[in-house]
Amino acid sequence: RSWKYGNAKPQLIKSITQGSLDNGMPAWGEVLSAQEIDALAGLIVEKLATVSQYQFNNKPQTAIFESSAGTLRMDTLATGLTSPWGIEQLPDRSLLVTDRSGKLYHVSTNGQKKEVSGVPEVVAEGQGGLLDITLHPQFEKNNWVYLSYSKGKMEGGQKLATTAIYRAKWSNGQ
Q: What is the Rg, in whole angstroms, of the alpha carbon atoms belonging to the chain?
């Protein structure tokens, strides 16, 4: 298995030391000593070699799964998304899909994806970004769509973010 930030000890040392703030991973280089980081990376490499849950020997042979709720069929609805986060089905059975990067997509019933304009500026760092989406309970009468997102501001020279709600009117696919 290929890990996002590397499988080898030098790659893990770099990841632990420098972190990846945009992906919610803090840097530990100023908290842990070089010796502690080296030991941690060594332990990760050692343990990954013996963890069977990451070997994926029992890969599904079909996209149909049985559950206590019934039979489920897994299918690809859209491709080319960075980090899809929230999905809401419109009355015409098309979908609105939020991407943590700050983009909102309208996915038609035949799988065609189109970026929607008018989305607020988001802080897509750490665990922030464009998050969930929901329709107003009386959407068919008022066309209101609600988005939750990380809203940023500068205060005292420091970038801050908070979770905010944005309301927009859905009209002609936008």
A: 21
Cα separation, 67 vs 76, whole angstroms: 19
Calculate the average pLDDT of the chain.
88
In this prediction the pTM is 0.66
Q: What is the DSSP string of 27-77?
A: --TTTS-HHHHHHHHHHHHHHHTT-GGGS--S--SSSEEEETTEEEE----
Tell me the residue type at 62: T
Identify which of 117, 119, 131, 116 has the alpha carbon closest to the alpha carbon of residue 162. 131
What pLDDT is stored for residue 26 in this prediction? 85
Q: How many CB atoms lie within 10 A of CB 160?
A: 11
Cβ(142)–Cβ(118) under 8 Å?
no
What distance in Å separates the CA atoms of residue 174 and residue 157, rounded to the nearest whole number? Answer: 35
Among 26, 154, 164, residue whose Cα is nearest residue 102: 164
Distance separating alpha carbons of residues 70 and 72, to the nearest angstrom: 6
**% of the chain at pLDDT higher than 90:** 54
